[in-house]
Specification:
Largest sheet of chain B: 5 strands, mixed
Largest interface: A-B, 29 and 31 residues
Structural class of chain A: alpha+beta
Structural class of chain B: alpha+beta
Helix content of chain B: 25-40%
Number of domains of chain A: 3
Largest sheet of chain A: 5 strands, antiparallel
Distance between the termini of chain A: 48 Å
CATH topology of the largest domain in chain A: Uridine Diphospho-n-acetylenolpyruvylglucosamine Reductase, domain 3
CATH class of the largest domain in chain B: Alpha Beta
Strand content of chain A: 25-35%
Shape of chain A: globular
Strand order of the largest sheet of chain A: 4-5-10-6-7
Strand content of chain B: 5-15%
CATH architecture of the largest domain in chain B: Roll
CATH topology of the largest domain in chain B: Ubiquitin-like (UB roll)
Shape of chain B: globular
CATH architecture of the largest domain in chain A: 2-Layer Sandwich
Radius of gyration of chain A: 18 Å
CATH superfamily of the largest domain in chain B: Beta-grasp domain
Number of domains of chain B: 2
Number of strands of chain B: 5
Number of strands of chain A: 14
Oligomer: heterodimer
């Protein structure tokens, strides 16, 4: 399978990339690792006339701790995030989930920013960032703005980023003592989750996020509220399907996905010490 | 567009379309057909090669993305005198292949794995090969080959 014809640009600066996006708007797509975009282009589900390769904007590839946050550059590859000492120490859920995406080859190429902007509700990392209460920093012609992860995922494969903007950084609160757990069910190890759950437990509260039970990754608000009110893992997990809108496909019916949400959230909560 | 990639130690410079996938650059422009196209959907790992030492699925990388990089394919594994790489030799000695279609990708994936983790456990190897499918062997002897290669390369790593 070969993508449709497109023009390829590899700007040497962030400003150069933003200028191309401003000029070409909807017709342009940002390419980082390419492991979400290229499969779509090969299937001709995406046909950008211009591909802007930002993978060599190395200024956007980093993991560092700043002002109580772990800050990850948008083009940081999953493998580099999973093996980052900073991430492993201060955002262990994020580092772990980065190491669970796809398979080693995918993790050598795919990037955190690409995974988030792609907006696939079946992806692992959006749920992790959501559970952690993350913030996304996007840059456009008028400068930078930040978007709460809860506002970022708008609909199925749709995120709150304009065609002339680019995701540049992801921030999650630093928490070396975090208790966390991540559960996903797949038929084959490398597959997308049929359903998954990410849990983080810290002094400021509990974050529970679900994978692939709605058109967007979802915070399990009912579970979080029950835990805050003193419920145990079993009781809280029974609420995990509230607010979900699971799809039906060859892997699972909506009913089975709701069942999985309850089971996986219970397991995750127990592993996180509830 | 002009794409130049150092493939197995030799600079390969070719005029290709921007949409050319790395695997087609290798097979068609460089005439290196050891890298197989299997599923063409980033699943099976048959097209695995190394970019700057790291395993990637070359059906999901544009040749343009590897412009200026170093790529190693199965053809670059044996020494110029024909002596097999330890991973290749381990596949032969452990009977790690049957039909052989997945084997180039398996060898490249294991080479990358051993570079990151020179002494992997059996579990590490099974997880490290999650991106490579084999329909013949049941994986047992592939894992044995990876363990054998790790042992043989232990001194050097």
């Amino acid at each position: 399978m070969i993508p449709d014809v497109f023009a390829y640009e590899r700007p040497e600066t962030r400003e150069g990339a933003l200028a191309l996006l401003a000029e070409h708007g909807d017709e342009a797509k940002v390419l980082a690792g390419g492991h979400s975009l290229l499969p779509l282009m090969k299937l001709r589900l995406a046909r950008p006339s211009l591909v802007v390769d930002v993978a060599r904007l190395y200024e956007l590839s980093y993991v560092r701790e700043e002002d109580g946050f772990v800050c990850v550059g948008a083009t940081t590859r999953h493998h580099d995030l999973a093996t980052s000492d900073v991430a492993r120490a201060s955002a262990p859920l994020l580092a772990h989930v980065a190491g669970q995406v796809g398979d080693p080859q995918v993790r050598h190429r795919g990037t955190l920013g690409g995974s988030l902007v792609h907006g696939d509700p079946a992806s692992d990392l959006p749920a992790a960032v959501l559970a952690l209460g993350g913030t996304l920093v996007v840059e456009g012609p008028s400068g930078r703005r930040t978007i709460d992860a809860r506002e970022f995922f708008v609909s199925f494969f749709e995120v709150a980023i304009a065609p002339d903007e680019m995701l540049v950084e992801i921030r999650v609160p630093s928490n070396p003592g975090e208790q966390w757990a991540f559960e996903k069910l797949t038929k084959r190890a490398q597959d997308w989750a049929i359903v998954g759950a990410a849990v983080t437990r810290r002094a400021s509260g509990v974050g529970v996020a679900l994978i692939n039970v709605a058109p967007v990754p979802l915070r399990a608000a009912a579970v979080e509220e029950a835990l805050a009110a003193g419920a145990g893992a079993d009781e809280a997990a029974q609420l995990a399907a509230e607010g979900t809108d699971p799809s039906s496909d060859f892997n699972a019916s909506p009913e089975y996905r709701r069942h999985l949400a309850r089971v996986l959230v219970r397991r995750a909560l127990q592993k996180a010490g509830f | 567009m002009r794409v130049t990639i150092n493939v197995n130690g030799t600079d390969e410079s070719h005029d290709v379309e921007a949409r050319t996938l790395l695997v087609h650059f290798l097979r068609d422009a460089c005439a290196l057909t050891g890298t197989n196209v299997g599923c063409d959907t980033t699943s099976c790992g048959a097209c695995t090669v190394l970019i700057d030492g790291q395993s990637v699925k070359s059906c999901t990388v544009l040749a343009a993305q590897a412009d200026g990089a170093s790529v190693t394919t199965i053809e670059g594994m044996a020494s110029p005198d024909g002596q097999l790489h330890p991973v290749q030799r381990a596949f032969q000695e452990c009977h790690g292949l049957q039909c052989g279609f997945c084997t180039p990708g398996m060898v490249m994936a294991i080479t990358s794995l051993l570079r990151e983790n020179p002494e992997p456990s059996e579990t590490d190897i099974r997880h490290g090969l999650e991106g490579n499918l084999c329909r013949c062997t049941g994986y047992h002897n592939i894992v044995e080959a990876a363990l054998a290669a790790s042992r043989e390369m232990g001194g050097a790593s």
